[in-house]
Write a structure and sequence with these properties.
Blueprint lengths: L5 H14 L4 H10 L4 H13 L5 H14 L5 H10 L4 H8 L4 H18 L5 H14 L4 H10 L5
Helix pairs in contact: 2-3, 4-5, 4-6, 7-8, 7-9, 8-9
Length: about 160
């Protein structure tokens, strides 16, 4: 889709940002895909920031909350995905504040219990290794995983 009129592009990108939280990178890519020149893209991004359609901290907080609560991702994976979206380190720090430590550990134990039920490996050492690898791939910290596995009776 090509948009050549700046006013139409402004309306469309405002609707795009109003639909859900977006990061700068997503907005810039969308504007470039419409065939706008770099100066127009920069001008529209600045306008979106001034009108509060685009807010990186708000996006990072929303992203972290959603990925943790819905997809049950760990902090490491969330941080990596935010870095991929070119989010500033300070905004990533603010996003991590959205995840309560107690809820985080309970979620880790919940994910561990669900995976443990599905795991067919019977050898205890191999079973723990597989569960650990799975949880690391979900972005949880190794020390918390070990603690949850050592605490949990649900993995046996």
């Amino acid at each position: 889709m090509k948009v050549y009129d700046l006013n139409i592009a402004r309306e469309k990108i405002q609707a795009y940002c109003a639909y859900q939280e977006r990061c700068h990178l997503e907005v810039e890519q969308k504007l470039k895909s419409w065939g706008l020149i770099p100066d127009a893209v920069d001008m529209l991004v600045v306008q979106l920031m001034q009108q509060n359609f685009l807010n990186e901290e708000r996006f990072a907080r929303s992203f972290a909350r959603g990925k943790f609560r819905i997809k049950k991702w760990g902090r490491i994976k969330i941080k990596l995905e935010l870095k991929k979206k070119s989010i500033y380190a300070k905004c990533i720090e603010y996003a991590m504040e959205e995840i309560d430590a107690d809820t985080y550990y309970e979620t880790l134990k919940e994910v561990l219990a669900k995976k443990s039920i599905l795991e067919k490996e019977s050898h205890p050492y191999k079973r723990k290794a597989k569960l650990t690898r799975y949880l690391v791939s979900r972005g949880f910290e190794y020390d918390l995983i070990r603690m949850a596995i050592d605490d949990g009776d649900s993995i046996d």
